């Protein structure tokens, strides 16, 4: 099986007052061992919730999550502990996710202790080595998170994730909170680590330009659904879903003198509430190509070309 992770019809609904927010509503995709799958969409599309449900921060409402061939809901005892080590998460806000009262050494050492990976001198050496691996050094070990810049804090978050020797990392908007000048450095670090350690990434971002250079394949989410999934180059060159087309048309061109080959598509209106999504295709209230049937039938994700999946009635 070339897939390290398989997500089948995943649902995560939240009760809010008297309503139900269907944050993730039937999402299916797989991640190949060693690849980076980018997951993209506007805020509220369910991409973070998908990541958090996969890593069991949330209990799924429905569907299946299969990691290395095992259903994770069935994992217990040793197997569950192993899963908790093998899958790690890097968070968007490196400051909020680091305990301000713990030193960097304690933050990184926590996982080493929980999983009994090393003690004493060997433990400290591991921590120093991890700091070097992420571009920091020994001298940083006894400092506190507030003494670091945003980029350095994200490096600490990466070191913490690596400390338990994971093979799958969910990175939830790891560069969105960083200065543009720092973003490329963190992306390069993540790519180097992937090569060196054979890591698999689920890389969550709100905009396609952020995942372009790191993803092998990209999934696009809208209002709790996966609407398109394809290899990166294919998605950028031949997007099929009207929502993907609009997202791509919004990416600023690196050189303003280069002529835009894609018309800028401005979507009308806001993303509807996930509490009360439109019938049929959830994108229809903003879709420039909506047809009458789009209000009636919910389009299913289908493979239109080898490896290129889309959920849209234009491709029936
Ligand atoms: Fe637009 Fe209809 Fe396709 Fe939805 S199914 S994206 S409304 S054309
Ligand atoms: Mg988010």
Automatic annotation (TrEMBL):
The record ties this protein, via Gene3D superfamilies, to: P-loop containing nucleotide triphosphate hydrolases
Write down the PANTHER family for this protein, in alphabetical order.
D,D-DIPEPTIDE TRANSPORT ATP-BINDING PROTEIN DDPF-RELATED, TRANSPORT ATP-BINDING PROTEIN
Organism (species): Tepidibacillus fermentans
Provide a Gene Ontology MF annotation, just one: ATP hydrolysis activity
* Record SUPFAM superfamilies: P-loop containing nucleoside triphosphate hydrolases
UniProt cross-references to Pfam families, sorted A to Z: ABC_tran, oligo_HPY
Q: Which residues form the ABC transporter domain?
A: 5-248
Q: What name goes with this protein?
A: Oligopeptide transport system ATP-binding protein
- This protein's superkingdom? Bacteria
């Amino acid at each position: 099986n070339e897939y390290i992770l398989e997500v089948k019809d995943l649902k995560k609904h939240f009760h809010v007052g008297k309503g139900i927010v269907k944050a993730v509503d039937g999402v299916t995709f797989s991640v190949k061992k060693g690849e980076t799958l980018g997951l993209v969409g506007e805020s509220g599309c369910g991409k973070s919730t998908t990541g958090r449900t996969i890593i069991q921060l949330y209990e799924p409402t429905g569907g299946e999550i299969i990691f290395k061939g095992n259903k994770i809901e069935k994992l217990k005892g040793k197997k569950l502990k192993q899963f908790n080590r093998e899958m790690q998460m890097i968070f968007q806000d490196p400051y909020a996710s680091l305990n301000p009262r713990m030193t960097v050494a304690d933050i990184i050492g926590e996982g080493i202790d929980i999983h009994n990976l090393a003690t004493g001198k060997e433990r400290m050496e591991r921590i120093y080595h991890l700091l070097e691996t992420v571009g920091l050094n020994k001298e940083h070990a006894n400092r506190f998170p507030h003494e670091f810049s945003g980029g350095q804090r994200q490096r600490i978050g990466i070191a913490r994730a690596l400390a338990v020797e994971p093979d799958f990392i969910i990175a939830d908007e790891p560069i969105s909170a960083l200065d543009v000048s720092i973003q490329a450095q963190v992306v390069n670090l993540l790519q180097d680590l992937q090569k060196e350690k054979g890591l698999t990434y689920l890389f969550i971002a709100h905009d396609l330009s952020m995942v372009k250079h790191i993803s092998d394949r990209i999934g696009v989410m809208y209002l709790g659904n996966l609407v398109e999934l394809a290899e990166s180059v294919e998605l950028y060159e031949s997007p099929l879903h009207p929502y993907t087309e609009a997202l791509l048309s919004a990416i600023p061109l690196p050189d303003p003198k280069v002529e835009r080959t894609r018309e800028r598509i401005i979507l009308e209106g806001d993303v509807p509430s996930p509490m009360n999504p439109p019938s049929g295709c959830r994108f229809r209230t903003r879709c420039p190509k909506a047809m009458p049937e789009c209000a009636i039938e919910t389009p299913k994700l289908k493979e239109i070309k080898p490896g290129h999946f889309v959920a849209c009635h234009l491709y029936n």
